[in-house]
From TrEMBL:
PANTHER family: AMIDASE, GLUTAMYL-TRNA(GLN) AMIDOTRANSFERASE SUBUNIT A
Keyword Signal on entry: yes
Protein name from the UniProt record: Amidase domain-containing protein
Keywords carried by this UniProt record: Signal
Gene3D superfamilies assigned to the protein according to its UniProt record, in alphabetical order: Amidase signature (AS) domain
Source organism: Salinomyces thailandicus
Signal sequence annotation: 1-22
Length: 551
């Protein structure tokens, strides 16, 4: 990309901007394109862009408790980018140049510890970046901080011993989905332009759905997972969460640019035609006309209730709009598509201990920390939340491995499921499958689990999914704009380009996304002459049902 006459523009517009008294950049609902427009026309500086998000976090984080840590070097990095802007060195500007980005706190980055939001990992400090983090930095992204997650990404409630409970920005009585719920809440509130997540069963899609955002869980193998706290070799995936399809496409392009990584052998699966793809190029060239969507009937709860009816209505609304746009909706009624039944093939229990031991022993980690999963959950000094639904799982994972005889049966079951999914695509000549991410609204704070989610199909089969906002429940006293509802668009392997085009088409059917009410507030940009402030997560809001303790 070339930006002609930047020096000239900068000198003229820069002086106008400095007269404009702080109103030169709008962080609320900002996109990569709007941020670059402000920067490259000299309306703002990178320091001001970063400061505007830090100011919002400092002032507003107490509404949602989404942020765990801020990067103390964020403004120094911004200043170095301002020097490059002034020297008009366009060759060095990557697609994420000066884009404030939040990492889920299970991604390694050298500026901050990687805690998994667990008290016992509070000082686990990476000395090298995860390859995916390195790719973001190379593309110019500024990692401004790290977001809370459901502790160790093991559930979808986004409550943790280190970060407390993250609160849904649209309804303070509800969870933000999860496990990447800190990222979801933060991006919804415009605490950054976008953020990252991980997904072992639902975790990139549930927070997108519950926060009126877009996300992409890529095909298994597209992006290296090295340097990211793992759960499952078979199911783990990483990806972006953003406020627009365009920004998901840009971020996905950068993340996938890591390519083959010997530290994650699934990256060898990427076929030649799917390597080095720029997902932004054909984004706007697709059409919904003539597209055949399979609608998975088994992924709905048709029992009418305040928790389910809005989801069913939002899906009815979107399918009507898809028909009107020239697409065909094919009902898929095969009893195979039962998320509860499919979940019996979940591999996490077998793979977790081995994967976690390997991660905790990475030579690139420094700082005191447990070196094995057993040690992490040992008595004392293991410290973690005890959530009844979750710790049955942990107990099993502690005594299981990939040498359990039933592991092989589960793997064969996954192969069968993957073939059956291909048969459904082929028999009905489908381009994609659609269904609600969650059969009901995102659950209230204090619930035993994030029930009703449908993410397991893509997680087991390694299929790509783009999640899109499709509606809101009716407004209530605690949810002045209603609770967000999201839809998954699932494709065959390596069809991210098509799925993003379809999501772009859905985005164009009418704006669904809304800003949370309190996040509409304009926050004065602070100077930050000295240093980036710290954040102190609220821990006094952990529901009583989840004590911090030991097994
Ligand atoms: C957040 O903090 C501000 C200023 O201290 C306070 O006015 C506001 O009530 C707090 N909001 C919440 C939701 O805690
Ligand atoms: C331009 O930026 C690139 C990337 O940061 C750097 O490698 C290069 O040396 C810079 N060129 C000049 C002339 O400053
Ligand atoms: C981690 O927690 C321990 C125990 O509470 C505390 O002593 C230590 O200072 C913490 N370390 C960091 C880096 O936060
Ligand atoms: C791929 O890597 C996993 C661990 O990350 C290892 O268990 C497995 O044996 C490797 N597979 C091959 C074929 O090398
Ligand atoms: C379906 O929704 C109803 C009403 O919310 C709920 O009682 C029931 O448990 C749900 N069924 C399933 C299978 O989740
Ligand atoms: C889905 O599977 C679960 C568990 O196998 C079963 O209890 C339930 O009845 C099935 N639901 C339907 C609609 O068949
Ligand atoms: C794996 O085997 C161990 C030992 O027999 C057993 O306790 C555990 O429950 C098994 N794990 C699974 C997931 O079946
Ligand atoms: C997988 O499919 C094969 C062939 O249809 C069948 O024999 C086998 O029992 C299935 N295995 C599982 C675990 O579903
Ligand atoms: C469905 O569409 C109608 C008409 O536009 C709208 O009033 C309603 O809020 C939508 N429902 C949901 C759950 O988004």
């Amino acid at each position: 990309m070339a930006f002609p006459n930047r020096t000239v523009l900068l000198s003229i517009l820069g002086s106008i901007a400095s007269l404009a008294n702080g109103c030169s950049y709008e962080p609320r609902e900002a996109t990569i394109a709007s941020t670059h427009h402000s920067l490259y026309t000299g309306l703002t500086t990178c320091r001001e862009v970063v400061s505007s998000f830090l100011s919002r976090i400092e002032t507003l984080n107490n509404h949602t408790n989404a942020i765990l840590t801020l990067n103390p070097h964020a403004l120094t990095i911004a200043d170095s980018m301002d020097i490059r802007l002034q020297s008009n060195n366009a060759s060095g500007f990557g697609p994420l140049f000066c884009i404030p980005t939040l990492l889920k706190d299970n991604w390694d980055t050298i500026e901050m510890p990687t805690t998994g939001a667990n008290l016992y990992l509070n000082a686990s400090q990476p000395t090298i970046d995860a390859p995916a983090t390195a790719a973001l930095k190379k593309a110019g992204a500024i990692i401004i901080g790290k977001a809370n997650l459901h502790e160790l990404a093991l559930e979808g409630l986004t409550v943790s011993s280190l970060g407390g409970q993250t609160i849904n920005p649209y309804d303070y009585t509800r969870t933000p989905g999860g496990s990447s719920g800190g990222t979801g809440a933060a991006v919804a509130a415009s605490f950054a332009v976008w953020g990252t997540g991980t997904d072992t069963v639902n975790s990139l899609r549930s927070p997108a759905s519950a926060n009126s955002l877009f996300s992409c869980r890529p095909t298994r193998g597209l992006i290296s997972r090295a340097g990211i706290i793992p759960i499952s070799y078979t199911q783990d995936a990483i990806g972006p969460i953003a406020r627009s399809v365009e920004d998901v496409a840009t971020a996905l392009t950068v993340l996938a640019s890591v390519g083959y990584d010997e530290d994650d052998n699934t990256t060898a699966l990427v076929p030649a035609g799917s390597r080095g793809v720029d997902y932004t190029v054909g984004l706007t060239q697709g059409s919904l006309k003539g597209i055949r969507f399979g609608l998975i009937e088994g992924f709905f709860n048709r029992t009418a209730s305040p928790e389910t009816t809005p989801v069913n209505e939002a899906m009815a609304n979107i399918t009507a709009k898809l028909w009107a746009a020239g697409a065909t909706i094919v009902p898929i009624t095969d009893s195979l598509y039962n998320a509860t039944a499919i979940a019996k093939l979940d591999t996490q229990r077998y793979e977790y201990r081995e994967e976690m031991n390997t991660y905790l022993q990475r030579p690139s980690l420094s700082g005191p920390r447990p070196k094995t999963l057993d040690e992490l959950y040992a008595t004392p000094p293991g410290k973690f939340l005890v959530i009844p639904s979750e710790y049955e799982y942990v107990n099993t994972a502690l005594v299981s491995s990939t040498s359990n005889t039933s592991y092989a049966t589960v793997k064969t079951g996954i192969q069968n499921l993957t073939l059956a999914l291909q048969e459904t695509f082929t028999a009905h000549n489908l381009d994609a499958m659609i269904y609600p991410e969650q059969k009901n609204l995102v659950v209230p704070i204090g619930s035993p689990s994030q029930s009703g989610r449908n993410g397991i199909l893509a997680a087991l089969t390694g299929s790509p999914v783009v999640t899109v906002p499709v509606g809101f429940s009716p407004a209530t006293e605690t949810a002045p704009k209603g609770v967000p509802i999201g839809m998954e668009i699932l494709g065959r392997a390596w069809t991210e380009e098509l799925l993003l085009q379809l999501a772009w088409g859905v985005q164009g059917l009418g704006r669904v996304r809304k800003t949370p009410e309190w996040a509409e507030r304009e926050v004065e940009v602070r100077g930050f002459e000295e240093a980036v402030p710290g954040v102190t997560p609220k821990k006094d809001n952990i529901p009583e049902a989840y004590p911090v303790g030991v097994l």
